[in-house]
Specification:
This is Squalene epoxidase-domain-containing protein. It comes from Hygrophoropsis aurantiaca. It is a single chain. The chain has helices at 13-24, 53-61, 103-116, 177-181, 245-253, 262-271, 313-329, 337-350, 352-369, 374-388, 392-401, 408-428, 475-501; strands at residues 2-9, 33-37, 50-51, 74-76, 78-83, 86-91, 98-100, 120-124, 126-132, 139-150, 153-168, 189-200, 210-214, 221-225, 230-238, 275-281, 296-298, 431-432, 435-438, 444-450, 452-456, 459-464, 467-468. It is α/β, with parallel strands linked by helices and 504 residues long. A hairpin with a 6-residue loop joins strand 13 (210-214) and strand 14. Strands 1, 2, 8, 9, 10, 11 and 17 form a seven-stranded mixed beta sheet that branches.
């Protein structure tokens, strides 16, 4: 019989790191751990390639920092946010660094670390179901099948694996999420997709920085280097997805990106297929309650997902592994679920600082960066100009994004500071306004209904943008708009905060 102390389903970021962590914690005897994965070949994904500084710190805490070596990982020192011809530099504070890399290479290093850990069996098997006690319905293990070759014929051998504790870490497309959480499961929201491709020898506006390009009328574009010659480009595509996705990117996205990227993008689009991943948001659900299954824990994207724009998924998962492994290893045994239940309740609240901040920020920033109405457009402009102020207006937000300052209260402060600053910008900053027609002497002529024209003998031959600050007579309308802007900020932030605070 395949009997273990712990079964972990999924040898991805969270599962592999947890197997290593549980093995390395001091106990009277090493735990026997089974790490089950459908395929142990190197995965090929377009996300999970950017690790924030707080994720690097968690990796160090777990004794897994060597997993960033020999995979051609690139140091990341912050971000460059591009909006039209304007660029703002957002460095990580205090010289902190993240890392970007090919996802598959990093996964293989984590799996190698798990294989070398004492008491860990890494098994290639497809898990098909949970084994439950007929009387108590507590999860006792999993059903799985392994492939074997006999006389050039591939056969499936079905087995059952038993353990005191089962941990499900099978990713965003989890097959067991609903079975574990039952009626307490929260719905998954997918508002857009990332279309990904790899650019060859591309030059970023600021080297070793993630580039976020804000494209008017479209979702944001995220670009970052993942190896010496490879740069990942992720284009946010809102639903419904265009039938000609390559044409959409060439026509509606590329012209708004830095010119140095145009040629590599066109080459990549000609040479490669576009791959898509859904950008899903799944709020966490309290575990260890009466409505959820006993004997089993969800971990990683199987339990909690946020928008990948901020690259916070691996950081949240690795910090969850740090906290959960320490707490579980303080127990003498993992057999008593009533001792594990309060640990899960404490974990739920302890993770809020980091996970809640990154979860809320990811969706809130996406709403601002992918502005699709006038109020969000105002907030986007205010956010960009807020960053341009520098100082704490950059240090605070990037500390939140990178996990260095895990605080939902600090997040609320900066988010609504952006909202009020956006309203102030609305009243005070010059903007492209309705323009006037100009005669040959340069005098305003006509109404403010369209682009400015310079005329010669009555014929328009040039167009000029007119930048003007609002005039007094425009203030009543701007007051109404400012209320809409503030209300929109509340509508964006409030429900996200509620999903994190809700515990029943």
């Amino acid at each position: 019989m395949n009997t273990y102390d712990v079964i972990i389903v999924g040898a991805g970021i969270a599962g592999s790191a947890l197997a290593h962590a549980l093995s390395s914690q001091t106990k009277t005897r090493p735990l026997r751990i089974a790490l089950l994965e459908r395929s142990l070949s190197e995965p090929d994904r377009i996300v999970g390639e950017l690790l924030q500084p707080a994720g690097v710190a968690a990796l160090n805490t777990l004794g897994l920092s060597s997993c960033l070596e020999d995979i051609d990982a690139i140091p990341v020192h912050g971000y460059a946010v591009v909006r039209g011809h304007d660029l703002v530099h957002i460095p990580y504070p205090d010289g902190r660094q993240g890392r970007s890399f090919h996802h598959g290479r990093f996964i293989m290093k984590l799996r190698d670390a798990a294989k070398k850990a004492v008491g860990v069996d890494v098994i290639e098997a497809t898990v098909s179901g949970l084994v439950e006690c007929p009387q108590t319905e507590r999860v006792l293990g999993v059903r799985a099948s392994r492939s074997s070759s006999v006389s050039d014929t591939v056969q499936e051998e079905k087995e059952e694996f038993y353990a005191h504790l089962t941990i499900i870490a099978d990713g965003c497309f989890s097959n067991f999420r609903s079975a574990v959480l039952g009626s307490s499961l929260r719905p998954t929201a997918t508002r857009s997709y990332f279309a990904g491709l790899i650019l060859k020898d591309a030059k970023l506006p600021i080297p070793q920085h993630g580039t976020v390009a804000l494209v008017k009328g479209q979702g944001p574009v995220l670009i970052y280097q993942i190896s010496e010659g490879d740069t990942r480009m992720l284009v946010d595509v809102k639903q419904p997805v265009p039938s000609d996705l390559k044409g959409h990117i060439l026509t509606n996205v590329v012209p708004s990106l830095p010119p140095s990227l145009h040629a590599p993008i066109r080459t990549a689009l000609d040479a490669n297929r576009l791959r898509r991943m859904p950008n899903s948001f799944l709020p966490p659900t309290p575990q260890g309650r009466r409505k959820t299954k006993d004997g089993v824990i969800l971990l990683g994207d199987a339990w909690n997902m946020r928008h990948p724009l901020t690259g916070g998924g691996m950081t949240v998962a690795l910090n969850d592994v740090v906290w959960l492994s320490r707490s579980l290893c303080e127990l003498e045994t993992l057999e008593n679920w009533e001792e594990i239940r309060p640990i899960l309740g404490k974990w739920w609240w302890e993770r809020k600082g980091l996970a809640g901040t990154i979860n809320i920020l990811s969706v809130a920033l996406y709403d601002l960066f992918g502005a699709d109405d006038d109020a969000l457009e105002v907030l986007q402009t205010g956010c960009f100009k807020y960053f341009e102020r520098g100082g704490e207006c950059v240090r605070g937000p990037v500390s939140l994004l990178s996990g260095i300052a895990p605080s939902t209260s600090l997040l609320a402060y900066h988010f609504f500071s952006v909202a009020f600053f956006a309203i102030w910008v609305l009243f005070t900053h010059p903007r492209v306004c309705s323009s006037s027609s100009y005669d040959t002497n340069g005098h305003a002529n006509g109404t403010n209904n369209g682009p400015a024209h310079v005329t010669t003998n009555g014929n328009a031959h040039d167009k000029k943008k007119i930048m003007l600050a609002p005039r007094i007579h425009e203030y009543p309308g701007l007051c109404v708009k400012s209320i809409q802007v503030f209300w929109t900020a509340c509508v964006v932030f409030g429900p996200l905060l509620w999903t994190e605070m809700k515990w029943w």
